[in-house]
Each structure stands twice: as structure tokens, then as C-alpha cells.
Amino acid sequence: MPSESTAELGAGANWIMLLLIFCTGWLASVFVRPAMVLRVDVIDALAGMLILLVTLSSLVMAGQGCTRATINTAWQWVGFVIFFLWCRQLLRRPAAIRAASAVMLALGVGLTALAYYQYFYSLPQMRAEFSRDPDAMLRAAGIDPAIGSPERKLFEDRLHSTEPLATFALANSLAGFLAPWLVVALGIAASARGSREEIHASNAASTPRPREAERLATSKAPVRLPKPVRLDSSWRVVLLAGLVAVLFGFALLLTKSRTALLAVGLGLSLLGLSRWPTRWPIRFRWQLVLAATLIAGVLAAATAAGVWDRQVLTETPKSLLYRFEYWKGTAAMIGDHPWFGCGPGNFQHFYATYKLPEASESIADPHNLFFEVAATFGVPALLVFSVLLGCVLWRWLPRYGFFSRTEAAGADVASVPKSSPEAGRQAAALTAEWTTTPAMSQTMYLGALAGVALGWWTGFVIGMTPDPFLLLCVPLAAAFLAGLHPWTERGRLPLTVFAVALLVLTVNLLAAGGIGFAGIAPTWWLLLAIVSNARALPSRERDLPRVAVGLLTAAAMLLVIGCFATLYSPTLRCRAKLDEGEERIQARRLGAAEAAFLAAAAADPYTAEPWNNLAALYHHEALERANEDSLSRFQSAVEQVLRRNPRAPTLRKQIGDWRLSLFARWGDDHQLQQAIVAYTEWVRLYPNHALGHAQLSLSHHLAGNDDLSQRAASEALRLDALNPHHEKKLSQQRLFNPVANSEGQRENAEQIVRRLRKTSLSK
Questions:
Q1: Residue 427 has pLDDT above 50, yes or no
Q2: CB-based contact 409:94 (threshold 8 Å)
Q3: How far apart are the C-alpha atoms of 380 and 363, rounded to whole Å?
Q4: CA 121, CA 112: separation in Å to the nearest integer?
Q5: Cα–Cα distance measured from residue 284 to residue 408, given in angstroms and rounded to the nearest whole number
Q6: Burial class of residue 671 in the structure, from the number of CB atoms within 10 Å of its CB (0-12 exposed, 13-18 middle, 19+ buried)
Q7: Please, what is the end-to-end C-alpha distance for the chain in angstroms?
Q8: Calpha distance 756→697 (Å, rounded)
């Protein structure tokens, strides 16, 4: 299910609740079991400060934007940081890191299979069905089928786009998820062979010495020895990981995400340097030839299949220019809200005020990791966030160097001279790190399977039924896990691979954004936890006393209660009633629909959606019969919507359209004046939107305000001239004009505005 819309829908409520419950249980086990400890250092303290700043921003800005979106997004960010803190505690052994990596790669396999299914079958089939009966498909999707409507145009643009989405709403999000795990897959393929010395050392350690063998023979207790590593088994891992990397790479090409491809290119270069850092100039090696052949083959296949065209490259400067426009508007927003930002979940509504006239669209995030943190939570949160990243970087670079080949939380025999007295102890330590109990990997696999079931249930709850093809993706992912299982239990992977993967995703987030998306952000926080643990300095870590652990457990319990009361319970109960109301409307049972929407509003007092649905219902009644009761209920519902979401420009436009249609139906001048008020607020919140000024000009003209109409028309034409995007021009859009005759209905927005300005000037 698309995770980009969790701010409004609260789709991640059950995930956050489970995370908090499990974390509370783990803290309680640490508190009651003396053998368990909780180790923290400055990175954990900085993450805790970030949680406090996120909470402070949400409390201060909750009433100034969309209240429900603020609550949902704040809990999501708290979940991200707690997930990071918990991963730092749990992923300290290489075996756990390998198991987690295998599960994430299996998830990528399933998503990639779905992406191929969409690209080669389902999307072409949908386009063919749309060409046969477009109105039927639009009505089934709940979209206005009128030709020229913005909703229809957006639907058609998305339908005719060839980029696969998998379970995301944007192709860039799919690319952002696949990019770092492509690097990890290549790292597994490059490291699976290992050195013969390491493999022989592991096999020698798995064979008991004579005295040990005699003791084991007389012992009655079951003893499990590490299985010998076969020299030919690593080839299977190499081929499997290499095949997955190729599949990921071709799927990346299908998304046409320039940022992700650039980041992956940088990652591949660094990965190559990490494998051969001391052999420049690189000698002729068959691995390089194979890698170059694979890359050339993937590019040739993409070109032959028509995946790539000239626009992928020629449009790159224009795409970069768009980013600068986004960042310029975001910088102005940060300047006006430096301390607490706009608040979680409010960026799109606040950004409309600062959007440049030449910018292409009103974006939901600034397409930059650091701009998003500063604009959402404020400059202090950005400073804490930057210091946290700086601490991780400081541990990595100066002490060990970027191209170190040390494995996670373990030693690397290859980095120790064979004549060193440490070589024997290092070999024994490496063998212990390679060995893992089956329970660890099996528990991770079962957790992944439970996550699939939970994700499927979540999709049904929020009304986004998962694609049935995902049922076939689960066996594919399971088969991949089975094939990679030997590496998961006794493999190795240098920490540099995770550092490169983290860098790849960070570069992608710097230009594509997505750190607030639940489908991408957990990967970033997971990789950050692994990298930060890799260089943990025991002298800088502290074991928290039992009292502190008990206080953290109590705080976690309070978080569980708070999340249940403000996110989980109201969101799910409200969603159930909203779905019931929509079903009643489809059945033309308007009274039952009204009752369901009122129940939804009572279940969640912070969301505007039930009141928006009630306003639409009462507006429909007021169009049929203009009595005081229906108009009063409509007015009350509109006030409730605005109280919960005062900064949404699209909401102001909708209210203005409702008022204008009531004026056209009954000739009520009060409704016309209220429409002017709504359109004026639309323009105030979205000052550089030419269509808003054009609609305001029309409403002033209907009210006889010729001077104001001429002024708004001139501003609309000025902004339209500054906009270089053809599809955003007034000539390509239509105004809402229920008063117009059939000839006026055929006019586009530019024609109406020019006519209004000419009429006003003549008077």
C-alpha cells in the first residue's frame, strides 16, 4: 500500500503501536533480567533530543495546520527514531545484521517482481481498458469524468506514465528503496567468496581437537558445532546475489529516477574502491570484466526495450532547476518559521504560500533531506539531526578510514598480518562471528512473514486493497531467503558495504526527498543504526543503571497509552465509520451516511475528513431545497472543517465552488459574498497561483465589483506569463462557472480572464 499518504490516513498506526509495545516489552526484560544491559552513548542522547524536538514542534503547530496530519506524522517520526534506537541495541552481532539484510533483500525481490508485473502486464491492460471506456473507469475511481477537469487530467497523466510503482505512490519512492539494497546485494556477491584462508580457518575451527572430541564423545549433553563452509556453496550465493542485483538494477532503469541512478553509480564506484583500495592502477581482473559486462547488458536491454529515451538525459537540467525552485521557496518558509517549522504533516499547505510563480507544482516535501527536517521541525531540530550524522561520520572516517573491510562488530582476518600473534585469536573470533544459531535467522524470517500479513491487513483497513499479485511475490521472496540462507548463517559482509548503501540512499534523499515516507525512511534509519554500531567505542558507551532502565520502561508505557489514545484508536474507528458512510452514499441511503459520518467525527475529534464529507452531503441537500435547516447544517460543517484544517488552499477552493453553485441555483447574494471570501482566502494561502486569481476575478465580476475583478484578472495573466509549464497555463484549465451559458462553458480560463479584464477596462 502507498505509504506516502500516511499523514492524512494514519496508515502506519498499527505499525507504530506494535513497535512501541515490543520496545516496551524489551525494556521491561532488560529491567528484570540482570544479565541484560542497555548500552547508550552520545548518539542515543542526540536521537532522544530529536524525539523531544519533534514532539515540541507538533504541540506548537498542531492548531495552525491539519491537526490530524500533524498528529499522525509526529507519531511516525517518533516511530522512526525509536526504531533507530532499538536497532542500535539489537543489531550488534554480524549474524543479526546479515539476517536483517537478507529479509530486506527478500522484500526488495517481492517489490521488484510486482514492478515487473505492472510494467509488462497490468499497466498496459489498464490503459487498454481506459481507452475502451474512460468514463466508467473514472466513475469507479470516484473521479469527475468531465473532460478537462483537473482530477481527470491527473488520473490520465498517471495512467499513461510507464514507470512502475510497486506498492508506492511514486516511482521515485520505489527507486529510493531499491537503490541501497542493490548496493548490499552487490556487496554480498563480491564478498561471498571470501579468502581461502578464512574459509579453511573456519573449517579448522569447526573440527574438534582430539581431547575435545574425546570429551564430546563421553558427554551426554547435545553439542552443536558450526557446520563446515563448503568452497562451492559461496558460488551459489554469488550467483543469487548477482542475479538479484541485476533485477534491482533493471527495475531502477524502469523507474527513470535520475537521482537514484546517479546515487547508485556513485555507490558502485565506492564499492569497487573498497574491494581494491591498494591496487591502483587496477590490474586486469575477471571480476571487473564481468561487472562491466553486466552493467552494459542491463543498459543495452533497457535501451532495446524502449525503457530509456533521450528525455531521460535531456530533461536532467530541467529537473535540477525544479529542485532549486523548490528549495528557494522552502528556504523562505524556514526563514518565517525558524524555531518550530511548519509542524509535521503541514509542509504542503504552508509551502503553497511560498511557491514561486515559475515552479512546476505544489510539492508535498521539499525533495531534500535537510530542508525537510528544518522546514518541518525547525532549525534546532536540524542542528541536532546534523550533529547526530556528524557523530556517526566522525566515528567512521578518521579512526578507520572509509575503505576499511572490517565486518560488522567483528574482526577481519585479512586485515591482520599472518605472522601477527593476534592472527589466531582473530581467526577464532571471526569463526564465532560467522556462526549463528538457526533460531536467530528463523525468528527473523517469521517476523518478516508476520509483517507481510500485517501489511495486507492494513491495506484492507484503510481501503487500499493490496494487489493480488503480491501473493505470488511472497513465495519468490521465500525462495530467495532459502537460497541465501547459507550466507545468512555463516557468511560475511564488510561494514563498508552498509556505509556505501547509506551514502547512496542519503544522496537520493538530498534531491528526491522521502525521509518522511514510511516506505523509505526505515531503510535509512536501519542502515544508520548498523553503521553507527560498527564503530561503537566501548570506552564511550555506558550501561544504564536499573533505575534509568525502569524510568525508560515507564516512559515507553506512557508512549503506548498516548499512541493508542491519539493515533491508533481514533484513526481506526474513524476510518471504519468513514468507509461505512461511503457505502451508504453509494446505496443512496443519505440519512444512514450522515449518521456514519457524525459517528466518525465523534470517534476522531481531530480529523477534518468526516466534516468535509458532511459538508458535501449538506451542500447536496441545499441544492435540492434551500431551507434554513440545510443551509445552517452546511455552514456548521464548513466551520468545523476549517477549524481542523485552516491552511489548505484546495479546501478554500472547494468551499468557494460550493458557495458559488448555491448562488447559481438560488440566486442568494449571501452565498456569492461567501464564495468571494473563500476564493480570497485561497489566493492569500496560494498567492502565486494564476487559476486562483482567475476564479476570484470571475466571482468579483458576478458580484459587480469591476475594479476588483480587473485587478484579479491582471494578476492572473501576469502569473500565467511567468509560468513556463504548458500544462499549467490558463489556456489548459477551466474555471468553475455554474452561472455561464453553454457558450461560456466552452471557454478556457485564459479566455474568460481576458474577456473580464477587457470588460472592466471598457467600463
A1: no
A2: yes
A3: 24
A4: 14
A5: 30
A6: buried
A7: 56
A8: 8
Residue with cell 494561502: 685
Helix and strand counts by DSSP (H, E) for the chain: 35, 2
Task: For residue 167, give the DSSP letter.
Answer: T
pLDDT tens-place string over residues 284-310: 455 555 666 666 666 666 565 556 665
3-state secondary structure 620-651: HHHHHCCCHHHHHHHHHHHHHHHHHCCCCHHH
Q: Is the dihedral of CA 485, 486, 487, 491 positive or negative?
A: positive
Q: What's the predicted TM-score (pTM) here?
A: 0.88
**Confidence check: pLDDT of 521 > 80:** yes
Q: State the residue for C-alpha cell 461505512.
A: 580
**How many CA atoms, within 13 angstroms, populate the side-chain half-sphere of residue 88?**
25
> What residues are paired with 407 via a beta bridge?
494
What pLDDT is stored for residue 210 in this prediction? 53
Q: Which residue has the cell 529537473?
A: 319
Per 3-state DSSP, what percentage of the chain is helix, strand, and coil (rounded to 5)? 75, 0, 25
**Rounded-to-integer distance, Cα 245 and Cα 754, Å:** 56
* Contacts with 651 (C-beta within 8 Å, 6 or more apart), sequence order: 608, 612, 641, 642, 645
Helix, strand, or coil (residue 477)? helix
CA–CA distance, 709 with 490 (Å, rounded to integer): 75
**For residue 132, what pLDDT is reported?**
84
Task: Give me the residue label for grid cell 515507553.
Answer: 556
* Maximum pairwise Cα distance, the chain: 111
Q: What is the pLDDT of residue 375?
A: 97
Determine contact, residues 183/267, Cβ cutoff 8 Å.
yes
Give yes or no for a contact between 376 and 57, defined as CB atoms under 8 angstroms apart: yes
User: Which grid cell sits at 573?
Assistant: 474507528
C-alpha span between 404 and 407 (Å, rounded)? 9
DSSP class of residue 494? B
Q: Which helix (H) or strand (E) holds 602?
A: helix 590-603
Cell numbers given for 349: 499547505
Q: Which amino acid is at 428?
A: A
Is residue 231's pLDDT more than 70? no
| Interval 366-380: pLDDT, tens | 999 999 999 999 999
